[in-house]
Amino acid sequence: xxxxxxxxxxxxxxxxxxxxxxxxxxxxxxxxxxxxxxxxxxxxxxxxxxxxxxxxxxxxxxxxxxxxxxxxxxxxxxxxxxxxxxxxxxxxxxxxxxxxxxxxxxxxxxxxxxxxxxxxxxxxxxxxxxxxxxxxxxxxxxxxxxxxxxxxxxxxxxxxxxxxxxxxxxxxxxxxxxxxxxxxxxxxxxxxxxxxxxxxxxxxxxxxxxxxxxxxxxxxxxxxxxxxxxxxxxxxxxxxxxxxxxxxxxxxxxxxxxxxxxxxxxxxxxxxxxxxxxxxxxxxxxxxxxxxxxxxxxxxxxxxxxxxxxxxxxxxxxxxxxxxxxxxxxxxxxxxxxxxxxxxxxxxxxxxxxxxxxxxxxxxxxxxxxxxxxxxxxxxxxxxxxxxxxxxxxxxxxxxxxxxxxxxxxxxxxxxxxxxxxxxxxxxxxxxxxxxxxxxxxxxxxxxxxxxxxxxxxxxxxxxxxxxxxxxxxxxxxxxxxxxxxxxxxxxxxxxxxxxxxxxxxxxxxxxxxxxxxxxxxxxxxxxxxxxxxxxxxxxxxxxxxxxxxxxxxxxxxxxxxxxxxxxxxxxxxxxxxxxxxxxx
Length: 585
Known about the structure:
The chain has 585 residues and is α+β, with helices and mostly antiparallel strands. It folds into four domains: 134 residues, Rossmann fold; 136 residues, Beta-Lactamase; 205 residues, Alpha-Beta Plaits, CATH 3.30.70; 65 residues. Helix content is 49%, strand content 24%. The chain has 20 helices and 19 strands. The strands form three sheets. Strands 12, 13, 14, 15, 16, 17, 18 and 19 form an eight-stranded mixed β-sheet that branches. The protein has a six-stranded antiparallel β-sheet with strand order 7-6-11-10-9-8. Helix 1 crosses helix 5, helix 2 runs parallel beside helix 3 and helix 18 packs antiparallel against helix 19. The longest helix has 47 residues. It is elongated, with a radius of gyration of 36 Å. It starts with a strand and ends in a 5-residue tail after the last helix. It holds the Pfam family Guanylate_cyc. Belongs to the adenylyl cyclase class-3 family. This is Response regulator. Keywords: Coiled coil, Phosphoprotein. GO terms for molecular function: adenylate cyclase activity.
């Protein structure tokens, strides 16, 4: 069976890519996510999908598009696929457009642009849930309709038999006895008129003709499924049939001393020629095997979910998605994909010194305690951990470098909280360095037939590791490359400054390195922002060889912010170069 389809429609490819990535993250691989650049493209795509027998569960469309406006497009989609739910992105849509979509296109909801990721994921999940609930209800209604048709046909036949009951009662009894399900006939007064042999077998009791409807649950031990309460007599399908309802329920069970029998029960009224209800028939069957099958299926589904969750702890789901794999079973050695991503490296400073003071067991407990606090900062910012290297973390971010920076800042903030806990236990304060670079890498699998591992290979990975190493030299917590800075969607959201230009091993060009200091203590962060222009001017003078000017500016910077370790390093470097009469390398 083909997967249900979600269609995303926008005239901007970046928005489509963002929608597709976010939907894949929220929904996994259960849906086929298609994109269309505009209304005409979308209508052609829908025609093709419907012709190929695909089920289109949801359409998400922008409003402003050059060929067809969103409300008109959704109206045409509704004409092609009425059951498809629609969501409109309404960055510039007016009230009339939204009303048109609601009135003529079965609009499920509209979302203002730019959207919130959580709002979009929640809205899409709710829409899909509503779609499949509607589908399930339609199927149930169809099944009930068919059953009602069958019962109505039986009613017509039964009505003829009952009308001739005096001379043809034997034929009726033979008919009911021949039915392979339990059959109960109620009089119009609610009294029991007849039970066939299968009904007596299931109920473990014969006809109690003088019983009132209120007494039925207690006499025949009718209970609500999963509850220690008798089934409400007025909800029994046979009694409801006397009120003119045709019903089907599967929430009744018979409890006897040695067994509990779940039932599926149908109730239908029997009319005379004048349209009056003179009898009601209830048919019921033992559904023990079906319930067991449903329970086994639910257990299997739960076990499969647990297995998938366990697999994700070793091979992240994002890794499988990048390789376009639905399961780890499909992954083979040597498979790879080229992708632009942001790489985050972090490492505990002076970890060797710390570990020498602990036993092996304490080392493991310490590392796991630290890593468990850092992991959420990465996952909550759309990243995934590629590998742990002792106390070091390597994480990948495919959406945008902004996520990587937010993750690095969150890690440093979590470390501050963790250090306060350690301080209460009289344990040494921890420091980490974080380096982030952005570039193209190869992501895939390496190894042999009996053992393989996921890995990434690229100069971009090596540079992010080197940036983390530079944090130790400059006493900075978080460093990024100019490649990362250039790719930021919202660079103004971060506090950063240029601190160096470094030579990358094997490369002729130098890389600019920037410090991100959002996680610094508030006073230090404020001073760095205040002295940013002074510091960067000093750096420019340094690179131009104007050491005296650089020294003066650095001294001004340190007068305002004496704790600026980077400014201190450059001041000492300039003074030494001037004393030695050496030019800036």
